[in-house]
Design goal:
4 helices; globular; 19 strands; nine-stranded mixed sheet; mainly beta; Immunoglobulin-like
Length: 335
């Protein structure tokens, strides 16, 4: 009986039943209290659940537009700052990371990183536990680094997160601190990607009790392409190479996008391969942003519908959204 009781307790701790959820307080200034504080990081790689050797504290609060995450991480002579880099370029250095799960009925998480030298690194962890970096937010963070402390304050726009329903909003988070020189990962709560979808289920609960503002988030992006002949040193403009992208968020969980004469000029080249005299028609991964945008959020593969047959549509309309009971993605294109 005692053995059974211990097993039940360990299972409850593992699944987060005993752990207390955090209610995210509203504040327009930095807020550090015990009720919005987390510090119990354990090592997940190597997988021995040892406590983190350098004190790491995290506090949460929000205002009308942003979720704030304050990290205070003790550092020592092994602290690795890395190098300057462009957005979503990996750097070998220490880092801090938060993953936010706003839809607990589906399996994806928003990921935001803080690096010592300030480069931005965000994306979506999809249902296959892989990261997709095509998605980008407007998150920011500010670092203050002394001899023994790394203080990093993240500001994550709520309008960049998809969520639905009325308050209280029940979300989840996973916090990670990485030590480059030791190649050690520490997490709160305990969770590893080899757990499969349980990785999302065992994330730590957070609650927002107040109504969050519904930012409509309009965006209009016109474009045109002008050609220039380097040999003749002459330029030319084709009226057919002009277009417009318009996106609109009716709610925090839905998005409408209209593209007139979509621009694919910035699409990366496909990997070179020899497909001469093959038995079946070659298949290429979709790499045009209009077609793959939001798929990673919903955990749907871009191979669900082979869009590479659509060569140069005149216009395209797309509606994506999610709710507690279903996901929605409707597209219409005219070639």
């Amino acid at each position: 009986m005692i053995k059974y009781f211990k097993t039940v307790i360990l299972f409850m701790i593992f699944t987060g039943v005993i752990l207390n959820a955090i209610t995210i307080p509203y504040s327009q200034t930095e807020l550090k209290t015990e009720s919005n504080h987390i510090s119990d990081f354990v090592r997940i790689s190597p997988d021995d659940s040892l406590s983190i050797p350098l004190q790491t504290d995290v506090w949460f609060w929000r205002d009308k537009e942003n979720l704030f995450v304050l990290w205070e991480a003790e550092i020592n002579e092994n602290f690795e700052k890395g190098r300057f880099a462009t957005t979503d370029e990996w750097v070998e250095c220490d880092f801090l990371r938060i993953q936010i799960i706003t839809d607990i009925n589906n399996y994806y998480a928003y990921m935001f990183c803080s690096f010592p030298l300030g480069n931005k690194y965000d994306g979506i962890r999809n249902s296959n536990l892989n990261f997709e970096y095509d998605w980008n937010s407007n998150y920011e963070y500010e670092n203050i680094i002394s001899d023994d402390l790394w203080k990093s304050t993240m500001s994550i726009p709520l309008k960049d997160l998809r969520f639905y329903g009325k308050p209280p909003y029940k979300w989840k988070i996973i916090l990670t601190r990485y030590f480059e020189k030791a190649n050690d990962f520490y997490s709160f709560p305990y969770g590893k990607i080899d757990m499969g979808k349980d990785y999302f289920r065992t994330a730590y609960d957070i609650t927002i009790n107040e109504e969050l503002s519904q930012n409509k988030n309009y965006r209009i992006t016109p474009y045109f392409i002008k050609k220039y002949d380097l040999m003749e040193e002459t330029g030319s403009f084709d009226p057919e190479n002009i277009g417009l992208d318009f996106s609109y968020n009716p709610t925090s969980a839905t998005k409408v996008k209209l593209s007139i004469n979509p621009d694919f000029s910035d699409v990366p080249l496909d990997t070179e391969e020899d497909n001469f005299n093959v038995l079946y028609a070659p298949s290429f991964e979709e790499n045009r942003y209009f077609f793959i945008e939001d798929l990673d959020v919903f955990g749907v593969s871009s191979n669900l519908f082979y869009t590479r047959h659509i060569m140069q549509p005149q216009y395209a309309v797309k509606l994506t959204g999610d709710s507690e009971k279903f996901l929605l993605r409707i597209s219409f294109r005219n070639g």
